[in-house]
Amino acid sequence: NAGVTQTPKFRVLKTGQSMTLLCAQDMNHEYMYWYRQDPGMGLRLIHYSVGEGTTAKGEVPDGYNVSRLKKQNFLLGLESAAPSQTSVYFCASSYRLGQTNTGELFFGEGSRLTVL
Amino acid sequence: GQQLNQSPQSMFIQEGEDVSMNCTSSSIFNTWLWYKQDPGEGPVLLIALYKAGELTSNGRLTAQFGITRKDSFLNISASIPSDVGIYFCAGHWETSGSRLTFGEGTQLTVNP
User: Does residue B43 sit at the A interface (CB-CB below 8 Å)?
Assistant: First the structure.
């Protein structure tokens, strides 16, 4: 059982380049999320999705786009990377919050992105 | 948006010592959660709290949902080296829909 899988694990970009991070979950979860983690700032929500074909902005959405064409996949795109987007990115998934297991997010192992 | 203040930011302790960390919020939460992140991994849920005043244990870990619904604490008893990592509190409130708010994290170092 793979859980939440993120690819790639590491990437180095030059300023202005674009890239896509892929998240895949095999737990049939409705909800999926993209967070970024920076030292001393905890986990900040970038975008999230409550179901296939729907996405919404989180706390820090600027400079990112997302798509959820299939229930099991959630893609995070950077159209024109900037050094401020150097971070560790985590994807997570969960059952619908408010039901059993409220709040249990299942996280991937993270993707470390460096923008030069 | 909602903000959580988590303290301390870091702790350096000796193996066998007890640890205490807490989170406070200016707003009321319906659910408090505590996650642990091992180095190089994603966070994993340790304890979830759903009622004000609730006290829940998971092995050597004990967490409480504050009576005012604006705070929570996590205690670790008799720490061991594998307790090393970052501990995050997180909160969920009625109008937040599907979103959790995370604290800044407490970095725990345990010296053998």
Answer: yes
- With cut-offs at 50, 70 and 90, classify the pLDDT of residue A102: low
Residue owning tokens 């905890």: A42
Largest CA distance in chain A: 43
End-to-end Cα separation, chain A, in angstroms: 36
Cβ contact, residue pair B42, A50, below 8 Å: no
Cα-based angle B20, B21, B24 (whole degrees, multiple of 5): 140
Quickly list DSSP for A3-30. Answer: -EEEE-SEEEE-TT--EEEEEEESS--S
For residue A105, which residues of chain B lie inside 8 Å, CB to CB? 35, 43, 45, 100
A43 touches chain B (CB under 8 A): yes
Give φ, ψ of A83 to 5 degrees.
-55, -30
Q: Which of A32-36, A40-44, B30-34 has the highest mean pLDDT?
A: A32-36
Query: Under a CB-based contact definition with an 8 Å cutoff, are residues A69 and A56 in contact?
Result: no
Instruction: Record the tokens describing residue B46, joined without a space.
Output: 């340790």
Average pLDDT over residues A64-85: 97
